[in-house]
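G., the chain you wanted modeled:
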Amino acid sequence: MRTSMRSNQKVLGILTGSLSKRHSGKDRSALLKMALHSMRKARGCWSFIRALHKGPEAASVPQKDCMKRVFSGIQPTGIPHLGNYLGAIENWVRLQDEDGSVLYSIVDLHSITVPQDPTILRQSILDMTAALLACGINPDKSILFQQSQVSEHTQLSWILTCMVRLPRLQHLHQWKAKAGKQKHDGTMGLLTYPVLQAADVLLYKSTHVPVGEDQVQHMELVQDLAQGFNKKYGEFFPVPTSILTSMKKVKSLRDPSAKMSKSDPDKLATVRITDSPEEIVQKFRKAVTDFTSEVTYDPASRGGVSNLVAIHAAVTGLTVEEVVRLSKGLDTARYKLVVADAVIEKFAPIKSEIEKLKMDKGHLEKVLRVGSEKAKELAYPVFQEVKKLVGFL
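Predicted structure as tokens:
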């Protein structure tokens, strides 16, 4: 830049000297203006040419900040069930093949909002890692990591917690539902874990988050916190967009009004991906339907049968209409066995791969360690910027 200025001054000096000898005052003034105008144009051309050469490099910073980044997490409490697989994991596998930057976290910090046995929790983290790998999560295509290994999650969570008012958290439907079950024993962790969820997402400047219907309200909190932070400290966090899964909530096999859950006390209500064929058949045989034997899809009035049809369509890749058409002539008792067979076929290779992976604890630990290091590399600079914006030294 200084060299350019010196060159321009030198040229201007030569021009001025030349003009002073050959032209009158008016002429010199007019010609000098023309010379300066030509120099500015030339300087603009050179700036443009330099910009062309530096363009990709200069543009890399905003592109990096604005790139599409997907984040999602799953708790390591128990083996994933049919609902987890169809509602989240299957979608995760697809997203890692479509998007350039994808992070999936085993959110062990979230799991301790309810009491956990330390020994069981440690094993559950490894079991969940094995399950995700067996389902198709590829550490070469996405970052699979353990949440508690990246300390910036909790640090950012505290900053965001100081920005949200208590009534906002108390009005979240999941707090009402869970606190109601625990009566007066609802913990602060249970109350504030949606803020930790927001930190999970924002820490990586995530732009998209795959969520189920029951997490939409929490995503609104994430978006509000991102906007609130930006308003207070300047534009920094992207406001993430929800990616709603095409699969509606998988319902309990024993209560079609409730979603399938790991914590359901009725052992026949939930199909786990590691269940034996015999267990899967038994659970579908005992699935609640109704007194109409025909197979139809009508979620409003035939919740139980419609749940079976939705599961059947999801595990086979068929549409609901195709499933209903192919099931014509079957009564619901026989149809339950057809669905059970389809689920067994879907889960057989996954179950086999889980068993192999669980035999190699060292490999699972390495996957989490390497993934956590990669996540830390992304999280650290973002949080350093957050600290500066907030006013920390």
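Residues 1-33, 35-65 have pLDDT under 50 and may be disordered.

Shout if anything looks off.
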